[in-house]
Amino acid sequence: MANGSGDEALRLIGGTLIPEIDKQTEALPPGRYHATQAEIEAAFLTSERRKELWQEWQDATALLNSAVDVASAWLGGSFFTSKEEPGDIDCVYWVDAEHLMSLGQDDRIIVETFAGGGSLEALGFRVDAYLVPWVSNPTPIPRGVDDRNYHLGRGYWDDLWAKMRSGAKNSQPSRLDSYPRRGYVEVTIDGYGK
Q1: If phi over 0 gives left and psi between -120 and 50 gives alpha, with beta otherwise, what is residue 167?
Q2: β-pair partners for 188
Q3: Crossing angle (nearest 10°) for helices 48-67 and 105-115
Q4: I need a surface site. Which of 8, 59, 71, 180 has the fewest CB within 10 A?
């Protein structure tokens, strides 16, 4: 079913405007797709395993959100492919850098767990999470090192999540592995206006 916008590449999946999984790559087509949590649930909670992983992501997000406002989350990895039994959910949380500077000790401990990056399995969540400070700059021109680091980080994650391996995990990377061949989803949590 087309979305009515004239863009035939986007189709309604489970009532959402998340594109269909590309049959060749078995992943979302390249790009960042904004979706609500309800839209992700309608499109991707197709098994008990996926429901469990999604609940763990929601619990991890609630834990982080108990310490700091989370602007948005970029979600990707095998959860957003045709893989029937994904191992985890990959997530990058975007948090206002100014909020991070004003945290109390207890909140800082929670945030540092996420800021270290990587698996949250020790907390009982099959989530690979990374926290990246979002820097407010109303112009496209970097004002200093914080702006440049933010731009580098945002570009890094967008580029990384557009790539996918062409071979097994332990295989030697090839040029194909550098091509943007998959997409990911962005979910607004608290928004950028807080």
Answers
A1: beta
A2: 72
A3: 140
A4: 8
